[in-house]
Design brief:
The chain is mainly beta and 349 residues long. The protein is built from 3 helices and 27 strands.
């Protein structure tokens, strides 16, 4: 019981720290900027190319802001595309399939969290795409369908905080549609026909993997087997051939500790376990089956993106970004500091 209490206390401390950081602010110039520090491409032996677009926390004195950055994997140059102003926050960024725009989950100063559009070159400030339905509502976890037709995101209503739902909006100029209820972490298959997501039980906060068609019909559970099944699952994504699903999950004892905590706290808090428990990458066939552990070095806040040639995976963590082979081997750090906050990474050509 002492070890469980230790994990729970650690999870609470991380959550409290994240909330405190989100309230910090400082005035700072916005717009694309080349960072003064050039990271030498020590990963040159991997023969990788393209760019990584990711979010990162920046400490300015006692304050922390969030930047949307772009790392050129060929040169090591890092460009800041957007940095939050005073009392702003960004928790995810998704690059459009054509590489021209970035959908960010942004909290502007004195505003509500919703989906904004940012030019991929950082030349203009972000503009709102989806207006919150009611005061206190939040929209987050934006992702594009690979065909570029839709942006999917998670909607959380203040009046119904125990029931997040996945919504989508046709781009550009579409209307918002509800896709799946009691769900988070949307990600589309490479052909844009299927959606993988995490179902969140509103009573127990237990997470389960599900797959549905892109419009939310015909959903089915991806049943996991092989040892104890984790109660916390985050950031699922399809493999390039859509035959398996990668997901982030802790080991069974840490997952059980979070479930125990969930029985004691308001359900609204349980929708933010991402980053609170050290986790690894796992894989399971898309039709369900024995889960396979791919990595064995637990990190906080995992979020992945396949390389354009599908030969590597970039993984965001609260500590930095690493690149690995699809089977979890060959882990190589390419960004050594992301500011200790949850975030996302996109690998583009």
């Amino acid at each position: 019981m002492d070890s469980m209490n230790g994990r729970v206390n650690a999870s609470l401390c991380i959550l409290m720290m994240a909330w405190q950081l989100a309230a910090c602010s400082v005035d700072i110039t916005q717009g694309p900027q080349l960072d003064s520090t050039n990271l030498l491409p020590t990963w040159a032996g991997l023969h990788i190319s393209g760019k990584l677009v990711y979010t990162a926390g920046e400490r300015h004195g006692t304050n922390v802001l969030v930047a949307v950055r772009m790392l050129n994997l060929s040169t090591g140059d890092i460009t800041t595309l957007f940095r939050t102003p005073a009392q702003g926050w960004v928790d995810s960024a998704a690059v459009s399939p054509d590489g021209k725009q970035i959908a960010i989950s942004y909290v502007p100063p004195n505003g509500q969290q919703t989906i904004y559009m940012l030019p991929a070159d950082g030349s203009q400030p972000p503009q709102p795409l989806v207006a919150p339905d009611q005061p206190g509502d939040r929209n987050s976890q934006a992702v594009w369908s690979p065909d570029g037709r839709y942006i999917y995101f998670v909607h959380m209503s203040q009046q119904n905080s125990g029931h997040p739902e996945i919504q989508r909006i046709a781009f550009p100029g579409g209307i918002v549609e509800i896709v799946v209820s009691n769900a988070a972490w949307p990600r589309l298959s490479p052909d844009s026909r299927e959606l993988v997501y995490v179902h969140v039980d509103p009573e127990t906060a237990v997470n389960r993997l599900f797959v549905t068609s892109a419009d939310g019909t015909g959903h089915r559970q991806v049943t996991l087997s092989g040892g104890m099944i984790p109660n916390v699952i985050d950031a699922p994504m399809f493999s390039p051939d859509a035959q398996s699903i990668l997901f982030s999950a802790p080991h069974s004892d840490e997952s059980s500790a979070w479930k125990w905590l969930g029985s004691m706290l308001p359900i609204a808090l349980i929708h933010a376990p991402h980053g609170s428990i050290p986790s690894d990458w796992w894989s399971v066939p898309v039709g369900g089956g024995v889960k396979q552990q791919l990595t064995h070095i637990p990190w906080l806040s995992l979020f992945g993106s396949y390389a354009p040639d599908n030969q590597h995976i970039a993984t965001y963590t609260a500590s930095g970004i690493f690149v690995m082979n699809p089977d979890g081997t060959g882990v190589t750090v390419v960004v050594s500091d992301t500011g200790g906050i949850p975030g996302t990474v996109n690998w583009i050509p």
